[in-house]
Amino acid sequence: MTAPNLPVLYQNIMFGLPDDLARNAFLWASERTQDDPMLYKAEDFAREAAMLTTRLKPWLDFAFRRLGRDPDDPALTPDLMNFILKRHANWRFGGNVTLSYAYAGAP
Description:
4 helices, mainly alpha
């Protein structure tokens, strides 16, 4: 993801994030953390979202295989992971937030 129209601070943080989901989560969270000029809260949130996807994906795959389901079924995995990411966002930012970033597959 290249974003030449972003400020240098945003670009420096985004280039240090592990994947596109984390970058999208960072941009989403940066809109909600206006009181944090150095964007530490948004960066922490993006790293937590990336960690959730990389750590939970193997467990979800294992659970789906145990149930006899295909772990790469596009109808199952993204919905469940997006539900978990939405719960995480609600926990971090309070209220009933809607996500504009989404988990689209394996990290």
